[in-house]
Amino acid sequence: MTASRLLDEIAGVGRDRARGGYSRHAFDKVEGELRTWFAERAGRLGLDVDTDRNGNLWAWWGTPGPDAVVTGSHLDSVPGGGAFDGPLGVVSALDAVESLQGKGFVPAKPFAVVVFVEEEGGRFGVPCLGSRLMTGSLDADKARGLRDPNGVTLAEAAVQAGFDPERFGADPDALARIGRFVELHVEQGRGLIDLGAPVAVGSTVIAHGRWRFSFSGQGNHAGATLIGDRHDPMLPAAAMVAAARRLAIATGDGRATVGRLVPVPGGTNAIASTVDLWLDARVPSGDRTRTLVGEITEAAKEAARAEGCLVAVTEESYSDTVTFDSGLRDELNARLGGVPELPTGAGHDAAILAAHVPAAMLYVRNPTGVSHSPEEFAEVDDVDHGGRALADVLEHLST
Amino acid sequence: MTASRLLDEIAGVGRDRARGGYSRHAFDKVEGELRTWFAERAGRLGLDVDTDRNGNLWAWWGTPGPDAVVTGSHLDSVPGGGAFDGPLGVVSALDAVESLQGKGFVPAKPFAVVVFVEEEGGRFGVPCLGSRLMTGSLDADKARGLRDPNGVTLAEAAVQAGFDPERFGADPDALARIGRFVELHVEQGRGLIDLGAPVAVGSTVIAHGRWRFSFSGQGNHAGATLIGDRHDPMLPAAAMVAAARRLAIATGDGRATVGRLVPVPGGTNAIASTVDLWLDARVPSGDRTRTLVGEITEAAKEAARAEGCLVAVTEESYSDTVTFDSGLRDELNARLGGVPELPTGAGHDAAILAAHVPAAMLYVRNPTGVSHSPEEFAEVDDVDHGGRALADVLEHLST
Description:
Two copies of one chain form a homodimer. Chain A is globular. Chain A folds into two domains: 3-206 and 321-398, Zn peptidases (Aminopeptidase); 207-319, 2-Layer Sandwich (Alpha-Beta Plaits), CATH 3.30.70. In chain A, strand 1 and strand 2 (57-61) form a beta hairpin. The mean pLDDT of chain A is 95. Helices cover 35% and strands 23% of the residues of chain A. By secondary structure, chain A is of the alpha/beta class. In chain A, the strands form three sheets. In chain A, strands 1, 2, 3, 4, 5, 6, 13, 14 and 15 form a nine-stranded mixed beta sheet that branches. A four-stranded antiparallel beta sheet of chain A has the order 9-11-7-12, covered by helices on one side. The longest helix of chain A has 19 residues, at 380-398.
């Protein structure tokens, strides 16, 4: 089974009719189907599938052990996401195992394919949930209390899906087994188009985070309330969206995005009482992501004051700039005969692991650069090219 | 049973835990409970309860017939609305009937209490749904196709609640029976506070409407997409919110509100592909509501162009300025011994009926002016005062 064929197998799972694309989230029914599919597919390759205490799936080729070569990615999506972000790394890993087996290769080192839980944070708000829990960078109590948009806690969702949330938390044993980690991922920008190359090795991941801004005012009647009597939180929320764009441009290379915004009660003829919005901010150069967020926060506070509203800001997650292990990058690059190195503005589980073990990434060309959208795409030839590159690299590392 | 006591009886029905207050919408389970409660309460007063072809409830005191004196309001709410907007007019009507019966009064004319469907448009977007259907000002086919936020059509919801949507439409027989209509309602502004009076007679309802603005751009990754490559519909949506405020102020007395805004897909780390928002606009002076909407539309188009996005605008409902019947107003005012007359920025079923029959309104003081919010309130004394005023007026009209 090529990676493309494997993607086809799950093409019908988790389609989002309202948004388009896919909505596959931690501990929902669709994710359960994908888990079952992965276990079945890995089982056919003779891999032993295990679930760690945080719900991450591990498929071992041979006996689990230390200094393992580990590859994989995630199967969850953003709400209304594409088919490649996450699954491409998982199917390419299975494809690589099959092709290595096909030529009689047997790894000299322990070898595993991993599927991390909720990399996108699409349901519970914290990206790289599974890898953050495993590495201990996310507190288990905080994680258990995270809520989805319907108010369901992560702990409740886990129980419903048959997992024991009391076991969530740092998993030094699982982490200690990883010798080196390689994640293949569809590129989420236009870097490889510009370079005219199908595959690149990852260099850095830009510092990034998510901040929740809760604007509160006075809910009231949209027709009967004079403009001068209003404390409408939608006004400072809108001003903040504009300020985030303006201040991001001023950084030179920073990005600031508001893609999620929820007015409450959300009635057409009612002035909102609160507006919650989420800011995603990333600044490549310097250590300026939090500086940008500070500037945007000041603008939000000023706009809230002007409307007689309040704003509360919560940092929901933050990750510093990550530079992938230079030794491992050099090895990959040598094995692949010299491919471009590429920074990325997107976060990944590999970047969480990079603080603990040598980790690296391979990117596969995205012919439009579009990601986190139903239109996300990769050409079959590039997908196959990526699968072969991953097999090459894994063979080298596990020999 | 006083009006206050009757309100207490339904205080637990339809509470919205997420938003606070109440969410009671057309053909949902909660509205079904309120219908049952109303029929039971009216039955205890010896009224005969009937449902018309559009789902509006009629409770007749004596034999139905032409030239009837009709009073009533609605039981639905905005999402997360207050306890008074709608129900106060219904319970005051029941209270008035009971007190008139208590003193042995028998109406000389046909007499009915009516409950109109979905006055707020909180589920299907069109306010005064039941009265608009009855009077024929809303096309039945168009109504049947209206969708709630989950994509359920009005026709589907009606069937599920046990109604036949094929019967929806103009109901000249029901309309022809109404001789005069009086609706009591909590005030939704600060007019009666300023006047120091508990009750007023309604003079006019400001022209108002709802417009849907659909901004479309290019969904993409929030971290990997450079600012210069973006077509983010959240930007023109935010610019429009600011422009709506600015242009409303420029009219002198106009109101423009965006209380509902939905980005799709709505992920934190995804640039939205579309943002839908709803504009509620009302300008008291001149005939300038649509002029204001035209100006806001131009601003929205300009902002969309600047971001490489598109915007489509749909008028979901529009009502011209309504002046209540001056003869009926004078009669009410004489009967009540001279009370203030008050214009309102809020729409009502009485204003829909006013195009067809003499209609009038009584407003009950709202001590904060807040409405369409869980904090909406009226003092028990004022509620009782309103109930007595309504009984007085109905006795006079039906003698």
